[in-house]
């Protein structure tokens, strides 16, 4: 793959086009935002709507990070079950966080509707599929937590799960009717369009290289010259570089790989007929979804090992599709790509205050479509005077995950072995 190749299927298939390469950096802004993914773009959109002069500075193209590469499952909540979130965040923040994250998909789909974002949005729910009895027990606990809040979730038995998936590989599932899917790059580009229309500036192909505290704000150095800002939000997440000391060591980056088939015909109508997307409870998770053209997209933890056409990952994709859908037969692939996820030790995201007027929401643990959108909105609220105590979760100081470099290697080796073993 060369630098000019699209970073994912979504970068080629999205109906929305990006703002295109452009520098045009202002000398001075109220708010400089580093990173053109959901976090940066939602911050820009909501800040601009609140009358703040916001400017997004993206090193590559809009959606170059996780936002243009992900699986597109617009799920509610976070990785951790609601009961554990409540226990971890306590009686003040726990219920508030869960409410905001239960309503996350509605926020995303409302923005899509309001700004007419063309991103193949579906709202028929997603299914968390149980790979084992233990997985089913976990789903039942999640169901109890959400149902107690009156949320529209439903346990599916093995038969109903098999009908919904077109696969008998699972012993049950949790259908979440709040959730849905998007073309993730389409959503990112649509947010960029909406942010611009609201008055935010966007420069792409510009890397921020330094941040220096100065009277009344920050000097933001870039490879195209400096910008002065009253406040700065870093929306760099798993694609964080060395810009702020220690930030990269505050999470463990792991990779997630996806293979997309060519559009499938009527022979595949039995696969996900209701177009719910699926992820499972296996320790090394698998995700499955269709897109608007009928492609089948399968993903799991790890990198692309080899290429779309040959190698370990290709064998893994073939075997997984044959295992899940034995009657489908061989398929042709159109794309294979991977991306980085920022994992935190407790699987909860963070909002760090790095210094006066310098914030970073980070560590979304693979649940970033709603999290980036919610936290971007929260950043704009904070900058327009909201009490920090009213944020969805308490702000934290930066702390290093001492084991991050080791865990990164452990995960990478484990996920590679998983592809090797499941590809045999
Ligand atoms: C393969 C994969 C599958 C996933 N599946 C899902 C899913 O199905 N559902 C879900 O909700 N979430 C999913 N996620 C997680 C989700 O994609 C991310 O959490 C989310 O996109 C993070 O958005 P962000 O804006 O915070 O960061 P990103 O989208 O990663 O953007 C960070 C940006 O910062 C830029 N940048 C970095 N340093 C600099 C610098 N110095 N100067 C300028 N720019 C800089 C990068 O170029 C990048 O564009 C998945 C992630 C991956 C990788």
Brief write-up:
The chain has 424 residues and is α/β, with parallel strands linked by helices.
Report on this model:
The protein has 424 residues and is of the alpha/beta class. Helices cover 32% and strands 25% of the residues. The chain has 10 helices and 18 strands. Strands 1, 2, 8, 9, 10, 11, 17 and 18 form an 8-stranded mixed sheet that branches. The protein has an 8-stranded mixed sheet with strand order 5-6-4-13-14-15-12-16, with helices on both faces. A two-stranded antiparallel sheet has the order 3-7. Strand 13 and strand 14 (286-290) form a beta hairpin. Helix 2 runs parallel beside helix 9. The mean pLDDT is 94. Bound molecules: flavin-adenine dinucleotide. Flavin-adenine dinucleotide is lined by residues 34-40, 57-60, 64-67, 69-73, 75, 207-208, 235-239, 241, 243, 256, 339-341, 364, 366-369, 372.
Q: Which key phrases capture this entry?
A:
single chain; alpha/beta; 424 residues; 18 strands; eight-stranded mixed β-sheet; globular; binds flavin-adenine dinucleotide
């Amino acid at each position: 793959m060369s630098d000019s190749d699209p970073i994912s299927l979504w970068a080629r298939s999205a109906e929305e086009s990006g703002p295109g390469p452009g520098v045009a950096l202002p000398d001075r802004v109220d708010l400089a935002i580093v990173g053109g993914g959901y976090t940066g773009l939602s911050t820009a959109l909501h800040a601009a709507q609140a009358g703040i002069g916001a400017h997004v500075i993206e090193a590559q193209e809009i959606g170059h990070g996780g936002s243009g590469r992900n699986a597109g499952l617009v799920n509610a909540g976070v990785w951790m079950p609601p009961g554990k979130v409540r226990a971890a965040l306590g009686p003040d923040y726990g219920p508030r966080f869960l409410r905001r994250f239960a309503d996350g998909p509605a926020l995303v789909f409302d923005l899509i509707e309001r700004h007419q974002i063309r991103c193949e949005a579906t709202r028929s729910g997603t299914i968390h599929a149980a790979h084992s009895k233990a997985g089913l027990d976990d789903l039942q606990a999640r169901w109890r937590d959400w149902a107690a809040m009156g949320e529209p979730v439903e346990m599916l038995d093995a038969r109903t799960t098999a009908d919904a998936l077109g696969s008998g590989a699972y012993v049950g599932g949790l259908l979440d009717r709040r959730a849905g899917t998007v073309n993730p790059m389409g959503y990112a580009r649509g947010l960029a369009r909406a942010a611009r229309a609201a008055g935010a500036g966007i420069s792409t192909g510009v890397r921020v290289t330094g941040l220096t505290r100065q009277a009344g704000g920050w000097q933001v150095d870039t490879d195209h010259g400096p910008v002065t800002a009253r406040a700065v939000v870093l929306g760099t997440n798993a694609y964080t570089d060395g810009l702020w000391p220690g930030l990269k060591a505050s999470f463990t980056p792991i990779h997630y790989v996806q293979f997309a088939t060519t559009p499938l015909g009527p022979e595949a109508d039995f696969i996900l007929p209701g177009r719910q997307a699926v992820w499972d409870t296996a320790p090394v998770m698998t995700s499955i979804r269709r897109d608007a053209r009928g492609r089948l997209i399968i993903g799991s933890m790890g990198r692309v090992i080899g290429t779309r056409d040959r190698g370990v990952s290709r064998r893994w994709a073939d075997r997984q599709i044959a295992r899940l859908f034995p009657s489908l037969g061989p398929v042709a692939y159109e794309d294979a790509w991977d991306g980085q996820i920022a994992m935190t030790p407790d699987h909860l995201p963070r909002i760090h205050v790095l210094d006066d007027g310098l914030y970073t929401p980070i560590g979304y643990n693979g649940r970033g479509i709603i999290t980036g959108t919610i936290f971007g909105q929260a950043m704009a609220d904070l900058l327009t005077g909201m009490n920090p105590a009213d944020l969805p979760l308490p702000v934290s100081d930066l702390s290093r995950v001492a084991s991050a470099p080791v865990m990164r290697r452990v995960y990478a080796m484990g996920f590679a072995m998983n592809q090797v073993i499941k590809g045999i």
